[in-house]
Amino acid sequence: MPITTLSSRELNQDVGRAKKAALNGPVFITDRGKPAHVLLNIEDYQRLIGKSRNLVEALSMPGLSETDFHPPRVTIPSREVDLS
């Protein structure tokens, strides 16, 4: 996993470059030559903190509405209830 290092100035001038680099590994952002921040993609971050999402969080993810999902229809037969 490659590590990219950018100065704060480089980050401000080209955020897109930092985001693309974060897809391949962490991006260290320096402030006056010293590491100050780390940019990670969301998958790496979640793996790092070990957090699992609940169903509501998973279904409210940005871009999910564009996902093509057509589950098969399920038919649950009814049955008579004996209340005697």
TrEMBL record:
Residues 64-84 are annotated as: Disordered. Pfam families: PhdYeFM_antitox. InterPro entries: Antitoxin_Phd/YefM, YefM-like_sf. It comes from the Bacteria. Belongs to the phD/YefM antitoxin family. Antitoxin component of a type II toxin-antitoxin (TA) system. This is Antitoxin. It comes from Aminobacter anthyllidis.
